[in-house]
Design goal:
62 residues, binds zinc ion, 2 helices, 3 strands, three-stranded antiparallel beta sheet
Amino acid sequence: MDPRPLTKLDRCDACSAQAHVRLITDDGGEWLFCNHHDNQHRSALWLKYPGLFVDDQSEASV
Ligand SMILES: [Zn+2]
């Protein structure tokens, strides 16, 4: 897996804000979230996908 950096062109899947977090599920699904929706959805996705890969780039983007 070679995650590319998120850019301002990457948009949250739940709203149209800039995405700062990429979540990759066990089955290869990819979610992009802003900080707000990451907080809202990450724990639920973790329950569903124990091997969830979290690429949190919110620090670098501030
Ligand atoms: Zn969002």
